[in-house]
Amino acid sequence: MTTLFFAWRYLWSRPLGAALNLLLLSLGLASITFLLLVGAQLSKAFERDLAGIDVVVGAKGSPMQLILSGVLHLDVPPGNVPIKAVQELARNPLVEQVIPISLGDNYGGYRIVGTSLDYPAHYDAQLTQGRLWTAPMEAVLGATAAKAMGIQVGQTFVGTHGLGAGGHPHGDSVYTVVGILAPGGSVLDRLILTDTASVWKVHEDYTAVDDDDRRVMEDEREITMALIRYSTPMAAVSFPRFVNSTTDMQAAAPALEITRLLSMLGLGTDVLRAFAGVLLLTAGLSVFIALWSAVRERRTDLALLRMLGAPPAKVAALLLCEALWLGLLAAVLGVLLGQGFAQALALFLSLDHSLLIGGMVWPAGLWVVPALALVVSLASALLPTVAAYRVSVLRLLQSH
Known about the structure:
InterPro entries: ABC3_permease_C (IPR003838), MacB_PCD (IPR025857), Macrolide_Exporter_MacB (IPR050250). The protein has 14 helices and 12 strands. The protein is an alpha+beta fold.
């Protein structure tokens, strides 16, 4: 305990230098913490939202756009597809389940999704209030959307055209909130769910058509896309090719497209990781210089300690503990700063109702941060510690 106390006093005997070393080391660790947190939470979000969805079928265009818009709800869809074509796919023996997704409107920036009851069931969604919809124009709100809008069961609202706030309101089409989902950490938290027929009712105008035209309109109904689960793993080989080659639709595999997306993001992550590495290397050199200088400046103190009976190992441990104090403080500060950066990113993304990132979490990989702090500190203190261990009392006294 005495060694730890003296090491702490020695560390802050030069407060400016200690603070600068601490800041530099903490920034490097904070950068690594941020990358680990965001990477772990993105992987968790993708794994959670894509689970059980084997393929997404929608209008031809960008496969990645189809996944981002229909599964993660981060992009606009490439277009619509006929409901009859999707129903035909549902009869394919390779298909176990088809979940329709219809987009086009929002309320307060939160997307209104026309779908079936299979959609909340797919994510094992639980209700915290009310019930699920049983008729068109009944809506169930995700936990995040309900909290942001301040809506309760029984209240009504009017959607606006488009997937972002600011569109033209559908004043003659009023939704009634019949349920609110419990927070589940999935994409459903930031969606407003309703029956597929609600989307058709909002966008179809029956006032100026006769019965024949109405039947034609109903026959030509469309949805945005369909989330499909295979009946057999072997379907992954033939089903997407079948859809892409024999229909006017496209099939996109979520796992493949997200892998592509992560590889595209890899360059930016590598740059940030390299930046963090440079900060840590610079911090390590700075700590080394500070400790090496400390050995030279404290010759008298070291000689006095040796004359009072302190063994060489005790003197070396004093310097080593000083480095450990620095590493410990930097680890705590770096993790806190990294968590703060992740929270700031979560706040920024919430403005766009994007992925659910943030919160004080500790993934298993985050233990590398305190370990790295101690390694950098000990490595920086290695040579100065050896120098302190080998210090000659006679030579120090003769130099004074």
